[in-house]
Specification:
Elements (H helix, E strand, L loop, with lengths): L1 E7 L4 H15 L3 E7 L15 E5 L12 H24 L5 E7 L17 E4 L5 H4 L1 H8 L3 H22 L4 E4 L2 H10 L6 E2 L20 E5 L9 H12 L10 E5 L7 H11 L3
Parallel strand pairs: 1-2, 1-4, 2-3, 4-5, 5-6, 6-7, 8-9
Length: about 280
């Protein structure tokens, strides 16, 4: 089959998974064509050896330039993204594809491209999770605690985006996810959307315990330096282990964080937490 692949992902697990799906489709004999905005990660995972073409739409990543006008400028940016995806959809619709497999979007989460695709073009969206800052309980509590001026300042754009995301995902012919946990979160965020669980496999020949490696007293936490990744939990665990009376005080558990990008003061806050817990 002639298949289109779309994503607007940064580096990380979702992109690695998408690259493995694409590689499996290629090995099965399918013809693949990649479509991305230019701000999507291009170098960390290479599709060059498995795709026949790569079409890009030019898009700069969002940056805050004038904070006081941020909601207005951001909504204008999002509208521009929608128009770009409409143009990209027209190109895909006219290319004679048998289907399209979509990863998520780092801006919209659920790509606006979905609603512009031809109804005759089968589409599969792999939804790792709804936008966490819009739906997870800890973020909802933070939003609820905002002062009235911040709610008036930010909530209209959030509500508009949530409505758009729901509209976008409804246009996918099939939605896949990685676990029953994600499946429940998707149903809660998007009523009526029945995601199908498609577990991410592990190559057990490559990833298995090594008897030759000496175990270290370390906890490894992987992911962007962003509050949503909750690296602080690893620090809490190490701190709790180190404080146990039965634990050998000469051996301290360490925490190592493997990351590719950082947001705000997350790195400083994690270091402060570790210092406070003597980790």
């Amino acid at each position: 089959m002639k298949l289109a692949i779309y994503h607007n992902l940064p580096t990380g697990g979702a992109l690695h998974h998408l690259s493995q799906v694409a590689r499996a489709l290629h090995q099965a004999g399918h013809e693949l064509h990649l479509f991305t905005p230019s701000c999507a990660e291009q170098k960390f995972y290479s599709f060059k050896d498995i795709i026949l073409s790569h079409s890009q739409i030019q898009r700069e990543k969002w940056t805050v330039s004038r904070p006081i006008l941020n909601p207005i400028l951001y909504r204008n940016y999002l509208k521009k993204c929608i128009n770009q995806e409409k143009d990209l959809a027209e190109k895909i619709n006219s290319a004679g594809f048998d289907g399209i497999y979509l990863g998520q979007c780092q801006t919209w989460t659920e790509p606006p491209l979905l609603k512009f695709l031809s109804k005759d073009l089968p589409s599969i969206l792999y939804c790792a999770e709804p936008k966490r800052s819009f739906h997870e309980e800890r973020y909802l509590k933070q939003i609820k605690a905002w002062p009235w001026w911040k709610k008036a300042y930010r909530l209209p754009t959030i509500s508009w985006m949530k409505k758009g995301q729901y509209e976008n995902i409804q246009h996918a012919n099939k939605v896949l996810c990685n676990s029953t946990f994600s499946q429940k979160n998707i149903s809660k965020a998007y009523p009526g959307i029945e995601a199908e669980v498609s577990y991410i496999g592990v190559d057990s020949d490559e990833f298995q315990p090594s008897k030759e490696v000496t175990k270290k007293h370390q906890l490894i936490s992987v992911g962007a330096l962003d509050p949503s990744k909750n690296h602080g939990m690893a620090i809490d665990i190490a701190g709790a282990i180190n404080q146990k009376p039965e634990h050998n005080t000469n051996i301290k558990f360490e925490v190592k964080i493997v990351t590719d990008r950082s947001y705000g003061r997350t790195a400083d806050e994690l270091q402060e937490k570790a210092k406070a817990l003597n980790v």
